[in-house]
Structures are given as C-alpha cells and as structure tokens.
ATP-dependent DNA helicase
Amino acid sequence: MTTSLKQALKTHFGFDSFKSKLQEDVVKAVVRGDRDVFVCMPTGAGKSLCYQLPAVLAEGITLVISPLIALIRDQVDHLRDHNIPACSINSKLPAVERRLILADLGSSSPKLKLLYITPEMVASPSFQPCLTDLCSRSLLSHLAVDEAHCVSQWGHDFRPDYLKLGELRARLPGVPCLALTATAPKNVQEDIIQSLKLRLPLSFITPVFRNNLHYDVIFRELLPNPYVHLHAFIKKALMLDSGSNGQGCGIVYCRTREGCETVAYQLTKLGILSKAYHAGLKAGDRTEVQNEWMQGRVLVIVATISFGMGVDKANVRFVAHWNLAKSLTSYYQESGRAGRDGLPSSCRTYYSAKDKAQINFFICQDVNRRQRKRGSAKESDKAAITDFEAMVSFCEREGCRHATISKFFGDKTPNCAGACDFCSNPKVVQAQLARAAALRTNTLAAPSNTPKGPFGFQADLYEGGKKGYGFERYDEGGEGNEDDGTKRKKEFSDLFKKQMKLRKGSDSQGEDFIPPDADCPLREASSQKIPKLTVKAREHCLQLLQESLYGQQGAEDAFNYDSLSLAVDIEHEVFKNSKSSNLYKAAVLKKVTANFYVCLQQQRASYLKRKRIGAGQRGSSNPFITAKDLLKSSMLDTESNKEKESGRFFNDSSGDMKAKRERLKETNMDTSSAASSSIKARAKAVSASLDNPTKGGKAMSKKQQKLAEAAKSSRNISQYFTKKQTTEKIQEDADMPEELDATFSHTPSEIAQENISREQHSPASVEAVESSQDVIQAESKTAGTDDIKEKRDLSPPAKRSRPTDGHSRRVTFNPSVQERALHPVNVPPKPVMLKEAADIVVRYLDPFYKQGKFATKELFKSFARYLSHLLAEGRSRGKSQVKAEAKALIKKFFSSVQRCESEADWKHLKRPHSRKTTEKNK
Ligand SMILES: Nc1ncnc2c1ncn2[C@@H]1O[C@H](COP(=O)(O)OP(=O)(O)OP(=O)(O)O)[C@@H](O)[C@H]1O
Ligand SMILES: [Zn+2]
C-alpha cells in the first residue's frame, strides 16, 4: 500500500514523499475507510492532502465542507492545476456552470472527484435532491469537514451552520467522515468529535510540544531600550555576529500597523534590514515585501497577524511577539511558524501590562457588542476571554512555558529539558516577575483594590456578581435596546448627581470609592490620589481625549488600540500631576483643546494635499462629529467659493508679490481667528460635558452646533493656508543650497504658479507628490506614537485680545500683530512631524530619482521613508533645521553612492549632529 500511495502522491501531486509520518498515517486510515478520522495538525502541516489523495484514489466523490468561498476557490484552483477534477457549488456560481456540475453529478459515472461546498449550501433545500441522489447511488466516497473547529462554540470562528453538519453526518451512515482542524484546545477537540457525531474516530494529533523551539518572555516595561533588546535577540537568533551564511530569517508580530512601521524602522536603523507588512500597504507592496522575505533578501518581516496564513518557510529562526497575542491558541500558531525545519529556533514574547489592559478591554468590548446585538450571552463569548487569560497566564506565571502550552491543548506535560527560560534558569524568570510586581506596586496607590487573582485576573471577573463586572452586566436591564450612548448618559447622570451632592457638601467624605471595572483601561485606575475624583469621571475624560486624538489619526484608525493607548498615557500624565479634581479636569480640557487644534492644522494640511493631487474626500465612519468632520464639510460647502478666491489671487497678473503677501496676511487674520473660535467652541462644548456629564447627549448636539458654526466661519481657512504655503515655498527655495538649486531653479512667480498647477501640468511632479503621498500613506496611518506624542504637546494658540469696538473686527494688516499670530513669542520652533519630514525629503530627493540615481522606484520610496523617520525623530528641531539636515543627508549619501542599488546602501547613514549640519549648510 505504501508504495502505491507514494506513487499516487508523485503522480497526482508531484511530491516525492509524505510531509510527515502523521500525514502518511492519516492518508492510509482514510483510504482504508473503515473508521471516522479526526485530524489535529498545525497550520501548514499538509492536512488538505489527507483527504485529497484518498479522494483521487477512491471511486465516487468526496464531499468537502469548507467555511469560506475564498478558501474553496484556492483549493479548487490548486487541484485543477494538478488536473484533478474538482469544483464547488456555491451561491456565486453562474447558473450555466451550476447546471453543468449537476448534470455530471447526475450521470451514471460522474467525473468529479472532489465537490467543495459551504455548510450553508449543504443545508440548503436546493442541494438536498442532489445529495440524496448521490447517497442512494453510493456515489459518496468520503465526507471531509475542513476547519472543523468552526463547529465548536469554544472556537473563535464558530459558525452556527457547522452545527448542522452533525445531522448531515447522521444521514450518511455508510460514508466515512474525516474532520480536520489546526491545533485546538482540548475542549474544542472534544466538541468537534461530539458535534459531528464521529463514530469512534481514529485521532491523529500532532504533539503540541516541539523541542526545537525555545520559548521565553521578556517584560518590555522593565527594559531601558526595548528596540535595542529586540535587536540583540535577533542578532543572536540569526547568528549575525558569527558571519555564517544562510542563517535564516525571522518574524516580529505587532498588533498595529503603526507598531510594524516603527519596529521595522528601528531595527533597520540598528542595522538589521527589516520591512513592515500590514493591511495598510498596497497589495503589490505587500506581495513584494513577502517575496523579499521569502527569498531571504529581507531578514526580518515585521507584521500584523495578517501575515503568515499559508506561508510555509522552513528556516524561520525566530518569531518575536512585540505585543501580546490575543490568545494562547493564536500565540501557539503564530510562534509555531518558527523552526519548521526542525532546527533550534526561538519564540519570544515581549510582555507589557499595558498591552494586557488594552487587549482585555477590547476583547470585553467586542464581547459586549456581540451580546448586545444578539440580545443574550453565550458560552462561546467566554472563549475569547479564557483564551486570552491563558496567554496572560503563560507570561505571568512561574513555570515551564512548554508545559503551560501542552496543558492548555490537553497534551501531557512534555520533557522541556531547558527549552524555555523557566526551565533553563528559573531564578531569572522569578527575578523578572518580582521586578514587574515592584513596578506595579509603585504605580498602584491602593493595593486593596488591585486585582487579586494570580495573574491580575479576579476569579469572579467574568462570572458577574453583585457589581456586575462580568457577563451578567451586559445583559442588565434588557440592554438589547439600549445603546452605548444611552448607557453612558445614564452612568454620567449618576455621576453628575453625585458630583453635585459633593459640591453641596451633602455627601459624606467617607463614601466608598467605587473601584474600576475589570476592563477599565486607565492607568492607576484604583488610585484615590485625587480626592473626589471618581473612576467614571476619569473614564469620561479618557474618552474625550481619545475622541480628540481620533481627529488626528483618521477614520481608519478611529478608536484603535493606539489612540486609546495614547489617550491613556495623556490622561495618566494629567492624573499624576493634578492635585484636585478641578485642576485635573482643567488640565484634561487643555489637552483636548490642544489636540483639536492640531487636528485642525492637520486637516488643513491634508486638505491642501488632497486638493493638490486631486483626490476625493474620504468617507468617515466616525460616530462622533469632530472638528475634523465639520471642517471638512465646511470646506466642501465653500469649495467653489474658495476656488474662485484662490484663482483670483494667483491669476492676478497685475498684482505684485508684495500686495499679494499683504492680502495673504489679511486673510490670515480672519482665518486664525476663525480657527481659534472653532477651538474655543469645541473647548466650551468639552467643558460643558465635563461639568455636566448628565447632559452628554444634549451637550454633544450643542457642541456639534457650535462647532458647525465655528467651522462655517472658518470658510477661508484653506485659502489662507494655500497662500501661506506659497510664501513658505518662496522662502524655502531662496535658501536652497547650490547643489540642489539647479533642479529647483524657478522664479518666485513660477513657483507661485506652479504651486497651484504643478500636478495638472507636470507629470514628473505628480510622481514626486504621489511618492510623498506613498511615504505618508505608509507613515501617516502608521504615524508612530512618537509622532502623535509630538503633536499632542503642541499648545493651542495664545488667546489674542480683541478690540472691544465691534466695527473694527476686520483688522487691517499690522506687521507686528501678524508676526505674533504666525510665530507666537517665546514658543520654540514647531517640531517637524513625520508628514512634513516626508514632504521635505521627497521634494529634495525627487530630482535624484529623475536623474536615475535609484535603481527602482521602490528603493526611492524606501529611502525616502527611511530618511523621513530619521528626520522626524528629533523633538526640538524646526522645519528649517530639518530641511538643512535633509539636504546634508542626501548630499552625504550621494557622495559615497553613485547610484542606489539596494537598501543596504543607506544602512550606515545616520543623522549628522544637528548644530554641525546647520552650520555646514549656512
Ligand atoms: N507531502 C508533501 N510534500 C511536500 N509538500 C506538501 C506535502 N503535502 C502538502 N504539502 C504542501 O504543504 C503546504 C501546506 O499544506 P496545506 O495547505 O494542506 O496545510 P494545512 O495543514 O491544510 O494548513 P491550514 O491549516 O492552513 O489549512 C502546501 O503548500 C502543500 O502543497
Ligand atoms: Zn520549560
């Protein structure tokens, strides 16, 4: 049998041998066909072949149930490539094809070998006659259920239609059934066997323990420089110091796109060529990055979990998780991509308590949302939480990491023999835990309120209880009809009443502090450092902060992990530095206002950019109306007006530059006051909501109205900025160094003209702007935490005194006032952000690209991205300094490199000392 199977394997699939002994054993069992079979093997182990080869060899048809049409399509294509007759009946199938398939199935000897079908289709009435007919003629050779964990409510991908497969299986008593799943916890395995009604199945389960994988956990918050730590780990894992070739490659998993970009950048800066991979990249770029990694041209891929499905690379020497995985199941699968060749490999998690709080918060939120949608709680809701708890436990508990994993998956305790940090040196692990505990104690003022469970989880956390911190809470008071807003309003109504009582002094001082919920994302949430400041009030402030940050981050990233984590940081900083509840609220208000100011600025800038490249407006799914949205709609309203205005301005051939500048400044007065009134309106609204949270809903709509008004009065904002940019451009070009002047030798009026029409008239420039957009697209979505931190430190413009005389509101130009409005006195130069840096870099680099100094456009973009990061890194440098540095860096680069051929060319390029650079370029 073995020889004929191997021959068939070679003939039909082109493989010389089975992928593993287990694969071979499964195939043999399925071919025998006397028992049901249960297969639990890791992703990429070659499960599909376990039913595909027997299907080819059997008489009749193998019915394969698969959950997704996309997966089915891949499988069918793959089989057809090997000339194996396979097809699928699904809702998307054209009627003609469907008829052809049904005709073949109805014939006396169908040609088809594998029929793929979704669980929904197999249960549909239209398919029943066909199924009955095949059964009655004994034409079904096997029933294969792929991704069988979808049948289990404990699995994350639970699909109710999978439950119906049990009935199907019962209807086909003589047909052997095969259920396949990737590594699944014990309870999921049991669920599968039971729900699919498998009869005394032969189980083929890959042992969970893999002795070539070394697991360890590092507490990121204890590290002085986590990137340097990661870098050292990678160097060791890839044996980069030993100079050996063919050292393999690695994966760093990050939770967010921003994280990927930042880590990839930091690693590259430290000397290890790394590239980011995430859904924010264009499909082509993603494929390119994946190919480069597969071919070993890029050693490290820094990816979100979207990377790895179907990636089968043997020599992955390490998998590092920069953020905590969302479950132990996922972690096992993701880390399991290391060492497929059986050689020693490392799996490391960089654990952080902040990650834990955030993921926990989001999982609970998600569960909450699902329950509210469906109106009831389900066992399956707990799966995500318990699986995440297991992940946390893996990191926080003393003990063998391999044993923790094996136990979770229901395997026996393995003989680790030093293949994890605990088994190789328990003292180090214990010391780390002790340091982490000490850090926590230092930050928690009230130890009595800290979670009491062994891993920071309280045992009854998800069980409900009097305070309803668990599942019951989500079902409280028929919340099926109550939306988040209503609930929040109710909470704040209670809070408001309590605050009023406190103010009147009617509330006793000794009132119990209400501890934070389990999913409370606040830092030092249990601290009662500020008298009378409640957790709920802090949460409300946190939400306002997040909302204000949202405006800066763009719709796609709305309320993502990073905006929350930033908001948490800001809130905590304010909390730490405030002495009273009122001071705390005032400080939050200030930050919120500052954020909205930045948001307005960004909006103006990005509006101009979109306008320049002629891109359309992007829709926003934000449920809150922010200054951004209002500004956007206001801009749309006034677009034609503005165009007319700007057209008049730039086409005014009779006007000289001086007159233009004066008009520009005049406009600036209008717009800057409009901007500040918009900010004030927002601030007022926020203030109202802080003082009177009960009226959250009303306050919000008033807030919106006010913002709308403010935004309407800022009609000229974009105009002002268009014009301002023109003068900036003139100045920029005036101080261009000689070597770059040649490529930017335009007269000021040409530049002014070019500024509005360059894209329409100059394809080369379009490319430059597009490239800048690309750099920004990759960066802005991903604009790292640092970037946003810089933004949030910006203060709103100083209040300007207004003339009391209402008639003189339209101020005639006064140079000194104007100067102040543009550059507030005593304010250091505005730090340059990533987007601005990218603009500068692309602009200066574009001429070199056009001169063919880059082998590919990708290299040009990649270099621009690298430089932008490098330049945006510093905190205190202004735009002109960054420009000077950009020029110096580009000059330095091309002084040693004739033509950029590879990314290694700029590996050693570092930012020159800032002062030196400025002096050199003077
Ligand atoms: N005997 C074999 N020899 C070499 N390659 C094989 C063999 N069997 C399967 N493969 C290849 O291994 C890869 C993974 O196979 P497959 O997609 O079936 O894995 P899987 O276990 O089903 O993974 P998943 O859990 O993602 O569905 C495929 O590229 C497949 O062609
Ligand atoms: Zn161990």
Observations:
- The mean pLDDT is 70.
- Residues 657-691 form the longest helix (35 residues).
- The longest strand covers residues 213-219.
- The two ends are 82 Å apart (CA to CA).
